[in-house]
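Page 42, continued from yesterday. The earlier attempt failed because a stray header line got pasted into the input along with the sequence. Redoing it now with the clean sequence only.
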Amino acid sequence: MASACLARHEVTFGLKDGGKLVVPCQAPYQMRTAFYAIDIDKALSQLLRE
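This time it went through. Structure tokens are written below.
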């Protein structure tokens, strides 16, 4: 997909019914090297407090 995006600025997917889906793109998605973790229970309890 990344090479199709770079070469043609679009990615084409074949559908089960024989059709196709063409998705335009400017550049491939760059994966982040750092991800952040969260304790979802603590976060939700803080959000739900009034």
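Notes: The chain has one domain: 2-48.
Reminder to self: strip header lines before submitting.
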